[in-house]
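Exercise 7. Given the encoded structure of a 225-residue chain, write a plausible sequence.
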């Protein structure tokens, strides 16, 4: 989260934002896009690989008596095991769809939030309160997952599969995975898992933007004094 907001502010400055003046929606979109790409490469992809390996090693209906020792025990041990068995580059497996997912998500998220915030501020003629920032963040947070859910499904499939040397994996790339999933399971399978993603992301984004605005306001007041 820190990298996301830091890089967003960095790209806004890079795109020519003047202090105290908001960027237009077009440039905000690209600043958000850059933010999503940055966090995807630096943080999200390797941690997602580890998370998916940890979560996917046993089926939820498996008989506990038949479950042997766990291959993956924690994030650090999982990262070490994946790097040792499959190469360090395996920690960035699925980086393409992850970059696209995070890029689209943050581009839509930041652009929608700034647009909602601007319209609401203009409508009431005063600065928004915390609960209004909360609602703007929640609404904008819902749009990203709807737009990028197919990329998230493909990313998960690519990262979950274990690559064995000499054996061609089921999913060999982003485009091939999209076609195969749609052919085998139907187009709507690309939006599978959207509801729990919305239930997780919407309140998270609402709280994040509310806190961000409050902290920003506090820091600005400190700077003036």
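Solution.
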């Amino acid at each position: 989260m820190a990298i996301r907001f830091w890089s967003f502010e960095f790209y806004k400055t890079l795109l020519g934002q003047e202090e105290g003046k908001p960027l237009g929606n077009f440039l905000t979109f690209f600043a958000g896009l850059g933010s999503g790409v940055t966090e995807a490469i630096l943080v999200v992809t390797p941690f997602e690989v580890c998370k998916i390996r940890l979560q996917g090693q046993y089926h939820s209906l498996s008989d506990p008596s038949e479950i042997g020792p766990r291959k993956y025990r924690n994030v650090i041990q999982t990262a070490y095991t994946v790097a040792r068995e499959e190469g360090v580059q395996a920690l960035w497996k699925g980086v393409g769809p992850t970059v696209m997912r995070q890029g689209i998500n943050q581009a839509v998220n930041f652009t929608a939030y700034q647009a909602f915030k601007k319209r609401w501020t203009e409508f009431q003629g005063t600065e928004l309160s915390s609960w209004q920032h909360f609602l703007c963040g929640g609404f904008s947070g819902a749009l990203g997952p709807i737009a990028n859910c197919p990329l998230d499904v493909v990313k998960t499939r690519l990262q979950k599969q274990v690559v064995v040397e000499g054996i061609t994996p089921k999913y060999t790339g982003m485009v091939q995975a999209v076609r195969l999933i749609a052919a085998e399971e139907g187009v709507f399978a690309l939006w599978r898992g959207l509801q729990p993603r919305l239930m997780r992301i919407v309140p998270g984004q609402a709280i994040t933007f509310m806190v961000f605005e409050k902290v920003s306001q506090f820091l600005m007041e400190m700077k003036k004094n």
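Remark. The chain has seven helices and no strands. Students should compare their own answers with the one above.
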